[in-house]
């Protein structure tokens, strides 16, 4: 039988304290979830940027740049999908830990695998909302900058 989580109203300092305690206690689980994605991608990215001439198959500078751009595009796309999945796995692991359930990195990834597209859609919507929230500030800042250029004094 698992313990019932303490779901009471907390102050900001209590939330921060509980968060840091949770991360310290389960550091290896969170580290493994992050390392599964970032470790191989770091190696691929280092190899891709270190040897684009061999991958592009040419010593021509334009071939070098095209090869590098293609490799980096693939790395960025794969990283975007895997980083989103990693965020979902971290959230899953956190919820399971708070609910008193045992979890490891394998379980976190396997239980979020079927929800990867839902997680991607949610992060896309979150990005749109963030952009829409920041848009008035960007427009205001742009307007103020343009006014300064037109009337510098």
Tell me what you see in this structure.
By secondary structure, the protein is mostly helical. The chain has helices at about 10-25, 25-50, 50-55, 60-100, 105-110, 115-150. α2 packs antiparallel against α4 and α2 (about 25-50) packs across α5 (about 105-110). The longest helix is centred in the middle third of the chain and has 38 residues, at about 60-100.
The portion of residues forming beta strands comes to: under 5%
**N- to C-terminal distance:** 72 Å
Helix content: over 70%
Q: How is the main sheet built?
A: none
Shape: flat
* H and E order: HHHHHH
Radius of gyration: 22 Å
Please count the beta strands (DSSP E, at least 2 residues each).
0
Task: Note the topology.
Layout (H helix, E strand, L loop, with lengths): L11 H14 L1 H24 L1 H5 L4 H38 L6 H8 L3 H35 L3
Helix pairs in contact: 2-4, 2-5, 4-5, 4-6
Short recap of the structure:
The protein is built from six helices and no strands. It has helices at 12-25, 27-50, 52-56, 61-98, 105-112, 116-150.
Key features of this structure:
153 residues, mainly alpha, 6 helices, 0% strand
């Amino acid at each position: 039988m698992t313990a019932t989580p303490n779901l009471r109203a907390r102050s900001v300092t209590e939330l921060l304290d509980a968060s840091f305690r949770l991360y310290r206690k389960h550091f290896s689980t969170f580290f493994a979830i992050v390392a599964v994605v970032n470790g191989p991608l770091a190696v691929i990215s280092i190899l891709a940027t270190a040897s684009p001439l061999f991958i592009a198959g040419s010593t021509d500078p334009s071939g070098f740049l095209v090869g590098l751009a293609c490799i980096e595009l693939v790395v960025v796309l794969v990283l975007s999908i895997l980083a989103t999945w990693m965020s979902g796995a971290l959230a899953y692991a956190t919820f399971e830990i708070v609910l008193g359930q045992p979890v490891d990195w394998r379980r976190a990834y396997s239980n979020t695998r079927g929800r990867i597209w839902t997680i991607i859609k949610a992060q896309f919507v979150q990005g749109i909302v963030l952009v829409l929230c920041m848009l008035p500030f960007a427009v205001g800042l742009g307007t103020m900058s343009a006014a300064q250029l037109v009337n510098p004094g």
